[in-house]
Design brief:
25 helices, about 5% strand, two-stranded antiparallel sheet, 4-stranded mixed sheet
Length: about 600
């Protein structure tokens, strides 16, 4: 019997990685339930950015494996000018994660599978990092569970941000980065530093291939943490050649990935396609301290109460809840730092979290979603033409003067890095608590902490799902010969995500596209004209663009008879009605 038990124990030790992965897999199914029952056909939440990423998966698969063309050059959108996918985030790493699943079950299945995989990988890689930090399995499991199921992740999962759901690479990067700084105890597992430099470089490269937001923010925060380390913690490192060689090696490993990631954006930026944001657009995306302390509005117990008593208009970007359990465990780690070999690590985690929170708070101080303003002195009020002024934060000056900072819109996203650091610190706190607990009660403590994390973060079962089918008009267009261009009216619908998705079915050139981030030049030029359809100028422009199929959404035009008469008066010919769409063609 004892021999069998020993054999079983050895088996568990050898296969622990499989069991940890299975743990995060099962918990992901539970946390996202009942998505697993409808992976092939539906998405969680309402229609939004999610359907754009489904389209992107399908288009890149078709471009690479059927047409053998450059997928970034989408010639059939924004027709006839064409459209560069760099106008919005491409997220190659997440698409690569999704691509194998697209062959198994189609683009919708691939999209859902990639999202679920990001939960599993986020938990697993945080687990591995914290296990390295603490040398303790249970503490790492708690930390991984916190990180995998952050309300931040659920908010972007629900809204369909496949790119921003790719948080799994942060532990990899910061693992390597903090190893280079020498602040992670070796725990008897010392390895050549160059391996950690490579690990950090791969992590940073994968961040770049996931989100340009994340890449820029990760590099900026790491640079600040590095300065804190060099100025306050190790002033001799400035002269350490080996230290700088490791930093350079990490950068060199990440460079090919980063160049591949940023090249399309650099080309577009040089062509003037990625202008700076305006301060008025960026300012509302400033986080409040309340965003880090308030549970998600999707929480199964108190989410509704939070939504009713606090300003959650920016709930997607503003869901930055650290977690009550996380805060307590991180506080335990900090209070017991002098009794730990991880004091330097905790100091840098705190510095990184503080910098992340300050930058997430944007250009000026906000509280509960509203700007905090103070009375302006008389001389300043007269000069500015206003009697109240905002309290400016470092982000304002970075926005004005720091390279590429003004390209960012949602500065709240800096907050995710605070969540990374808090999750790691919570693992250190959990390790201390577990270490001080008597053996018979250790398992109960771990189970209790995991249960508390679950209760703190669980959104409840999802009830809202969306299934997007081709419209009758899309199926009719697919049967029409040739490659005549399509346009949708009212023209404002032309930039809706679902209309980009419909091109997968009719496969015709389309004058619109998903242009909410940076509208391309042609779209900006023709939009004021097309908004007045039907009139002489808009119909003339339709002919100039070579449009063959003019789709009119009946729900948007209450007087259909008058609309038809106006269209025919300008030489348009009614082809028919397909579902809720009238189709006109330009007459000869």
């Amino acid at each position: 019997m004892e021999e069998n038990e020993n054999a079983f124990s050895r088996f568990l030790r050898r296969t622990w990685l499989i069991w940890v992965s299975l743990y995060f897999f099962v918990l992901t199914l539970a946390m996202t339930w009942p998505l697993v029952t409808r992976l092939r056909t539906q998405m969680v939440g309402q229609l939004g950015d999610n359907i754009y990423f489904v389209w992107m998966i399908a288009w890149i698969k078709r471009a690479l494996f059927e047409l053998h063309v450059n997928p970034f050059n989408v010639w059939f959108l924004n027709y006839p000018e064409g459209w560069n996918m760099a106008y919005t985030e491409i997220t190659p790493a997440q698409l690569a994660l999704a691509m194998p699943f697209s062959f198994l079950g189609g683009p919708m299945f691939a999209y859902n599978a990639a999202l679920m995989a990001s939960f599993i990988l986020s938990g697993l890689l945080m687990f591995l990092w914290v296990r390295r930090i603490t040398g303790q399995f249970s503490a790492a499991l708690i930390s991984g569970t916190i990180y995998a199921f952050l309300p931040f992740r659920f908010a972007h999962f629900l809204i369909g941000h496949l790119n921003l759901s790719g948080t799994q690479w942060f532990p990899l990067f910061f693992w390597g980065f903090f190893e280079i700084l020498g602040v992670i105890p070796q725990n008897g597992e010392a390895k050549p530093a160059w391996k950690y430099a490579a690990l950090g470089g791969i992590g940073l490269g994968l961040i770049g291939l996931t989100s340009q937001y994340y890449l820029y923010m990760a590099v900026l925060i790491a640079a600040v943490v590095l300065l804190v380390y060099l100025i306050f913690m190790n002033r001799t490192a400035w002269k350490d050649i080996m230290f700088w060689k490791r930093i350079i090696l990490m950068g060199a490993v990440s460079l090919p990935f980063i160049l591949l990631a940023v090249w399309p954006y650099l080309q577009l930026s040089q062509a003037g396609g990625l202008p700076d944001r305006s301060l008025s657009l960026v300012r509302p995306y400033s986080a409040s301290l309340t965003d880090f302390l308030l549970p998600s509005t999707d929480h199964f117990l108190w989410g509704k109460w939070v939504g009713e008593h606090f300003n959650r208009q920016m709930w997607v970007e503003g869901t930055l809840y650290i977690g009550a359990v996380t805060l307590v465990l991180a506080l335990v780690a900090w209070l017991r730092r002098k009794q730990s070999a991880r004091q330097a690590l905790l100091a840098l985690l705190l510095a990184g979290a503080a910098v992340s929170i300050v930058l997430a708070m944007g250009t000026d101080l906000h509280w509960n979603g509203s700007p905090v303003e103070i009375p302006a002195p008389a001389f300043l009020a007269e000069r500015l033409g206003r009697d109240r002024i905002p309290l400016l934060l470092p982000g304002y000056f970075l926005f004005q003067y720091f390279p590429f900072y003004a390209k960012l819109r949602a500065l709240m996203r800096f907050g995710v890095f605070a969540l990374v650091f808090f999750a790691a610190a919570a693992g250190v706190g959990a390790a201390w608590l577990i270490g001080k607990t008597l053996r018979p009660y250790k398992n109960w403590l771990v189970a209790g902490l995991l249960l508390l994390v679950f209760v703190d973060f669980y959104p409840g079962p999802y009830h809202e799902f969306t299934q997007v089918e081709p419209r009758p008009v899309d199926l009719w267009l697919a049967q029409q010969p040739g490659q005549g261009a399509v346009i949708q009216f009212p023209f404002v619908k032309g930039e809706d995500q679902e209309h980009t998705y419909f091109t997968l079915f009719h496969r015709k050139p389309y004058v619109g596209g998903f242009f909410n981030a940076f509208p391309p030049p042609q779209y900006q030029k023709i939009k004021p004209v097309m908004e007045n359809f039907p009139d002489l100028a808009s119909v003339s422009l339709l002919r100039e663009l070579g449009v063959e199929y003019i789709l009119v959404d009946l729900a948007s035009y209450p007087d259909v008879q008058t609309l038809q008469q106006q269209c025919e008066s300008f030489g348009l010919v009614l082809t028919g009605q397909y579902g809720d769409q009238l189709v006109f063609k330009p007459g000869h």
